[in-house]
Amino acid sequence: MPEGRSSAPRTLFDKLWDSHRIETDADGEGLLYIDRVCLHERTGSIALAELAARGQSVRRPGHVFCVMDHIVDTRPGRGDATPVPGGENFIIGLRHHAARFGLRLFDVGDENQGIGHLVMAEQGIALPGLTVVCPDSHTCTLGALGCLAFGIGSSETEHVLATSTLRLGKPATLEVVVEGVLAAPATAKDLALVLIAEYGADGGLGAAMEFRGGAVARLDMEARMTLCNMAVEFGAATALVAPDAKTIAYVAKRPYAPAAPPEAAWQALRTDADAAFDHRIAIDAGAVAPRVTWGTSPAQGVNVSGRVPPPRNSSDRRALDYIGLEPGTALTAVPIDAAFIGSCTNARLSDLRLAAAVLKNRRVAPGVAAVCVPGSSQVKKAAEAEGLHRTFQAAGFEWRESGCAMCFYAGGETFGAGKRVITTTNRNFEGRQGPGTRSHLASPAVVAASAIRGRIASPETLDAMVP
Amino acid sequence: MPDELRGKVEPVRPFACHRGIAAPLLRDNVDTDAIIPSREMRRVSKRGLGAGLFANWRYADVGGRLPNPRFVLNQPAYAGASILLGGHNFGCGSSREHAVWALSDFGIRAIFAPSFGAIFRKNCIANGLLPGTVPAADLSTLAGWVAAAPQQNLLAIDLRAGKVSTAKAELAFGIRPGDRQLLLRGLDPIAHTLTAAASIDAFERARFDACPWAKLN
After folding, report:
1. Tens of pLDDT, residues B127-149
2. Which of 162-221 (A) contact B at CB < 8 A?
3. Which CATH fold would you assign to the domain B14-186?
4. Nearest chain B residue to A65, by CA
5. In whole angstroms, what is the distance from residue B58 CA to residue B23 CA?
6. pLDDT tens string B179-205
7. Which of A10, A414, A309, A11 is nearest to A174 (CA)?
8. Where are the domains of chain B?
């Protein structure tokens, strides 16, 4: 196959790029072969409708997978109806077009339904060495498996469906070396929030970043997914972690994974010694403590034990005005109205276990609305098999069906205007979780601890709490 | 099935030159949730989204249509604006192409900012909207000149030359060469790529020979 001809040392990204590049045009744009596509009802329905209107076929329907995740209701007993005005049309539209084009659909009620980025990993659809796209910016999550994964727009999605290719300029490469020991209660989420706070919401420079170093190697697969998930909040084009024994073990025996995994080929998917990256960042995992955001950009964050910093510019002032906090306020003094555990960032089994460990034998503070939405129906089932749902429910959390839900108000549900929510999601933008809703990003452990305390809190401080 | 589920194809509009009123929105990290909140993405369609543009900032009442007089695009001085001047990382966040559809539907043809969200930038190109990069200091200069008399001090854009000019000065803006070509040609990207269908087929055959596991039925 048309591998790179050069024997020069290459980064993992270069290898994936070279093995998928069909041609490079006169303007330097590469035409990349795309192995797998994930569609969801929100924009997949539109892309497929446009394709149908063109009279265009889906070039390789067996490589396209559809999920209902963005606007499906997450309340128990759900059907097609959603609280979103007109939302049902997206669900009906995707179902109609998936059937018309012969695409595998993980429909509402399917035991494998879930947030697309979780389903793609759980089902073994995304694999090391593949290219994967989805009209969703958090597709970079799947880079944790060592596949080249891009979030794209609807028009590009139509292009991929019709041609099995994506045209894009080759991004620069960014090496993020993480050494040191990430110690509990700090998690991969906290690591990502530190990185973004230190280098900014555009610190990723539109680059293809690779997380490397001992601390990354020690992360389990789900934590790697959380880390890669946040790459888009860092302004990166995508993120990667080189496949290792953990990756191969994770992928093994999943429904769409090969019966005889090409382990040697997957192990070779790593950056060569001496390969040069365009940019480099080093970060000490040992210095990472539980984090929380105080503003309306994921970059506006501090340690949970910290204080709201003085504003540096008009963006900071605007954020403080929206979030309703004064500079100098201790974050642990900030009362919350709601706690949300869910989303493609932090709603995998390990996340729910972390939260449940904090919630065990405790109760959510009076007046705090608490909701847990498992990231997939498989996660929900696995959590229930361990009895985690009982821990959540006993603590006062609602236990829901899987979907993107309250992460971005797309399910039409919100905690309300002016309400302060501590959330395991990825974006604290103005209005992200509903008009006027104030979002504070944190790890599942911090969200659970805050729910118990009724104020922003780190889990290790709960023991000192007066019951 | 509602009509909007049937889709409707429209050609991509080429972009070469444009002259128009510019409006400053110079804050950093203007995200696509701000450009169009998810609740405004009601239709299974690319059209008619202009009313939802910047809804959280543009309207005084949540979910309503009462104009917020403080928002720049509601001010008479900027009526008819077709160019936006933005801050760093403009269009970051969600991949929703609705953000670009809403901007286009409202009448925006070009945005100048120091940097753009990567997916947003590509979505602009796919819809014939120009995302030009201009250093922050130059943007402040442009914004200052425009603000003195927005309806008179128009900006003139020449994409081929990569220049944006006022009556007094001319600035270079950045754009990737491939993006420039796509905008100038207004090509249908699918039709363009399908001219290379034989190369794609050949590449795919070689890929499946080398990595049979990559092929599903």
Report:
1. 999 999 999 999 999 999 999 99
2. 162-165, 167-169, 171, 201-202, 206
3. Aconitase; domain 4 (3.20.19)
4. B216
5. 14
6. 999 899 887 889 889 999 999 999 999
7. A11
8. 14-186, 187-217
